């Protein structure tokens, strides 16, 4: 799918044919602000994003494991997801997220 990342600096990065997860696609395309330090096992929160309100229902809520990590993050909101836990599917074509990172 096509994914738009709004970086912490406010830049818009559009990634075409994004593959894997919101984290791995960002790392593969050098999207600023998403480091993926833990390699995608939900234990670093460097892949923290806020899902655009229009997409929150399709993306779904954070899992219990994500909630455990997000509790430690100052900028956690109801829109928060850890990018490594969001698998990119064709249904998510056009997705927009704001990078929080860490
Ligand atoms: Fe570490 Fe997502 S990459 S929590």
TrEMBL record:
Keyword annotations from UniProtKB, A to Z: 2Fe-2S, Iron, Iron-sulfur, Metal-binding
GO molecular function annotation: 2 iron, 2 sulfur cluster binding; electron transfer activity; metal ion binding
Pfam families: Fer2 (PF00111)
Highest taxon in the source lineage: Bacteria
Location of the 2Fe-2S ferredoxin-type domain: 1-102
Biological-process GO terms, alphabetical: P450-containing electron transport chain
This protein's name: 2Fe-2S ferredoxin
Taxonomic lineage from the root: Bacteria, Pseudomonadati, Planctomycetota, Phycisphaerae, Phycisphaerales
Source organism of this protein record: Phycisphaera mikurensis (strain NBRC 102666 / KCTC 22515 / FYK2301M01)
Segments crossing the lipid bilayer: none
Xref: InterPro entries: 2Fe-2S_ferredoxin-like_sf, 2Fe-2S_ferredoxin-type, Adrenodoxin-like, Beta-grasp_dom_sf
